[in-house]
């Protein structure tokens, strides 16, 4: 075998090995992220209707972002896989609904902090405003990435203008 033939042979072997690795990686990724079986869903909503009662406190530049009924995402079925958190289903719902989502890692709490949804951020409607979430009507005292969801759960992300008091879950000032 001449050097030219050896070189071509090595190129073909390298190409084949690379192709096999790419295919195996792609197959593994699809398997790891395959959607859950039918029926493994939860319901997600995103609302900011508390702002409607507090428009005077809202940053004037944000007025056009507030839906007339305060509903950013109506009840939407989202696929749930084992180990999914409330944050996972929020990301999935926002991606599918093309809704802007901004968050930051809160390493101290080993969780994620929701900074803004649909370009509505904490403090946009006063010093006690921001995003809160509840699962099956119960507000949690943990970050949304620390709470796992199950099929059939209802996950609501709600904007508060009064540290949760306007949502029925806050600390009185």
How would you portray this structure in words?
With 173 residues, the chain is α+β, with helices and mostly antiparallel strands. Helices cover 24% and strands 27% of the residues. It has 2 helices and 8 strands. It has helices spanning 3-32, 86-97, and strands at 41-47, 71-79, 101-106, 111-117, 120-121, 130-135, 138-139, 154-160. The strands form 2 sheets. Strands 2-1-8-6-7 form a 5-stranded mixed β-sheet, with helices on one face. Strand 6 and strand 7 (138-139) form a beta hairpin. The protein starts with a helix and ends in a 13-residue tail after the last strand.
Order of strands across the main sheet? 2-1-8-6-7
Q: Could you state the order of secondary-structure elements as H and E?
A: HEEHEEEEEE
Strand content: 25-35%
Largest sheet composition: 5 strands, mixed
Structural class: alpha+beta
């Amino acid at each position: 075998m001449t050097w030219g033939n050896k070189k071509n042979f090595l190129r073909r072997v390298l190409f084949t090995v690379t192709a096999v690795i790419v295919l195996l990686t792609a197959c593994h990724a699809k398997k790891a992220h395959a959607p859950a079986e039918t029926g493994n869903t939860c319901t997600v909503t995103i609302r900011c209707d508390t702002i409607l009662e507090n428009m005077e406190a809202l940053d004037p530049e944000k007025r056009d972002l507030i839906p007339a009924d305060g509903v950013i995402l109506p009840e939407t079925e989202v696929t749930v896989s084992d180990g999914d958190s409330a944050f996972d289903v929020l990301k999935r719902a926002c991606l599918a609904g093309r809704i802007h989502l901004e968050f930051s890692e809160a390493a101290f709490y080993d969780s994620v902090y929701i900074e803004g949804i649909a370009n509505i951020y904490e403090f946009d409607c006063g010093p006690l405003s921001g995003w809160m979430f509840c699962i099956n009507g119960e507000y949690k005292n943990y970050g949304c990435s620390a709470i796992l969801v199950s099929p059939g759960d209802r996950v609501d992300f709600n904007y508060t203008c009064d540290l949760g008091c306007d949502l029925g879950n806050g600390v009185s000032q």
